[in-house]
Amino acid sequence: YQNLVEGFDSRITQNENMIEKTTIIFDNIADMQQFENLKPNTYAATNGYYASGDGGCGFYYITDDTPYVTNNIDVINCLENMTAILLTDAVVNAASFGCIGNNATEQRINRALEVAQNLNKKIIFPVSFNTNSSIIVDSNVNVEISKTLEYTGNDAAIIFDDCEFSTVKANKIIAESGIGVKFYQHDSNTNIKYCTLDCLYI
After folding, report:
1. SS3 31
2. What is the β-pairing status of strands 83-87 and 58-63?
């Protein structure tokens, strides 16, 4: 998956005009999944994840290759045995993984963080969301929460987990029953250093 995304990043840059003319645009993921005429080795775009304009727009490569295991988060199962694979931009948009409103599940958050870390890209949560799952920050991760994170779990909304050189910038964090931020050190042989938290309101 990582090699596929990195490879298409360069190909998209080289063939922007052709791709613009051949991309099918859908309102949301569900519409793309139900479309009967997707073709392999083409592209599709969505104006939102659950609904048009919800912040979860995405750009997808369509394939009928079998090695890709669908998770229906960023590797989407479509009709006629087609698979739509989310291609990232300069930053990873967590809303394009479904982290929107009440739908920000642990699986969606962790998948977005995993992709951002694997591709060494910044991750942005551009719309407000609420979740009972902590955002686990590993080393060399740059996270931006542009709106409001409402945390409903019993631990911490943001956990710096034995990490180095990581940054979290947040507009607003609300922790109903847990705490806003925690620095977690597994044992005396590990260190948390050079990490930054910039939050307007916790």
Report:
1. helix
2. antiparallel
